[in-house]
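Researcher: Please translate sequence to structure tokens.
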Amino acid sequence: MGSVVPGYSPGFKKPPQTLRLRRKRLRRGEPASPSGQAAPPAPGRPPGADAALRPRPFPGARGRRNPFCGLGDPTARPPPPPGPGPRLSPALGGAEKGPAADGSGEEFFSGLQEDKPIGKEEFYETSAPALIGDPHQTTSPTGVSSPSYEFPADWSIKTRLLFKSSHSFAWADHLKAQEESQGFVQHCRATSVHLPQSIQEPKLSTELRCAFQQSLVYWLHPFLPWLQLFPRIGADRKVAGKYSPWSHDEALQQVLMSEWSLSFTSLYNLLRARLCPYFYVCTYQFTVLFRAAGLGGNDKITALISPTTRGLREAMKNDGIEFDLPFQETKKRKCNSSASHLESGLTSDSETIGKDAENDEEQVISSGDDDEEGFSWLEEMGVQDKIKQPDAINIKLCKERRGVHLDHKPESVVLVQGTNTFTLLNFLMNCKSLVASAGPQAGIPPTLLSPIAFRGATMQTLKARSINVKTQVHSQYKDIFCLEIVGPILPHSLHSLSMLFKIAQKGAFSAVCYTHEPTAVFNTGTSNEKSIMKESLSKDLSRTGLHPSTLNQLALSPTLGKSCIRLLEMNNYIYTWKS
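Model: Translation complete:
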């Protein structure tokens, strides 16, 4: 350059020192410049300095302001970005006070971080954390368990599993015809496969591939190839528009229901004979889990129903079915313990006593017991005359209101035990509201899901496919191998697959679990506080075809409550999970 333009600074080589946003403060008595006009030149600069630095547009091109035209003037305000783009925060030119004029320009870049567009790396982290990421990354401490050699039983039904590992899942792809057939035979003959602790070449292990095929098998009734019969709750949109010849044919509906009743009875008989560990009945309104005696920490046959309504519970009472509300029973026990503390005077914190006393009245009213039993603790304390008790009508209205508030919620889960499960079987087969009378699911019997074969069942397999992706970890690209499994994944399948991947993936993998939410509450504790010997359990339920380790896990009392396993990780052959 022959001549140096006045006011020009070579600071363009250091953008942080020049790209600053500063609001020009008006002096007293100086009129504000109208919008659309250029700001007056700084003192000591010729009027044509900015015009000399501003490039000229091409002939015929639409005029557009150069964003770098004001680099020489530190007081000039850059124009807003054209079109959609990152929106500056109010502190960047829109607030009363401008950024500090320290020459660093950090305010400009820090402000852009608030509404900056998501780049490629951030998109991977926010939109697909389950698919692309470091499998060894530590999860959030909230809801994360302590390391253990075994994870608790999860009685919820999973709709999708996504396994990730730094080792390839190629061994699970393209099973040979002989391996697939052998896996079906092992399942039908209830053969328990015992594999070594480690396998160097999983792809060359025929036993491993056969066991993988065996763990994908489940049994379904009814089976209509053109309809997806699980999940049933909230599936009206998926079923709508499908071919349903039975919707207006009562004779065909009766045939479907009669066959379904035979299959349902067959499953219950297998369960009672301890040849079937558990099964599910999936209706369009609720789901029922039947468990054999010895599973779930209970020595009786149990059935869990969720979600329920007040009408369903009243109908069960009218048919003589005795049932419990596990979450309401827990509240009742807390209420009784609080009342005992009030009577004995063992509690020293008056605020805690006051809060417990306020909650006790609602819990006693909603417990569903008799009125006299609900307020018997007042008579024991000798204050029944000093406290005004609600009359019977108000108590009944409160009970009904509380009962309706439980409808369609996880707290409405119902527990049926022992011989009452047989009465529940007859109730479900004769219940008219079990099958939808209108809508896309009209006339379709409930879906029966079982880990073993039963009368009228159809063998189905979960769909599995491997995915290989690359992700950036610490400025390097790393291969992450994924295996996706889709379908109604029953509790025993999750445990069986984890045992196989423990061997094949060398004790390092993670699994993201997608749960059918209405079944998450099946993890509530239903133990009757009686000891169950694992040796007798393995002997009684060994003919179900489940692995002994899986039976031992399912025999324990559930500990997850209303939650379920969302993330399962294994590092160095040790499990951690997040609910």
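Researcher: Any highlights?
Model: The longest strand covers residues 476-489.
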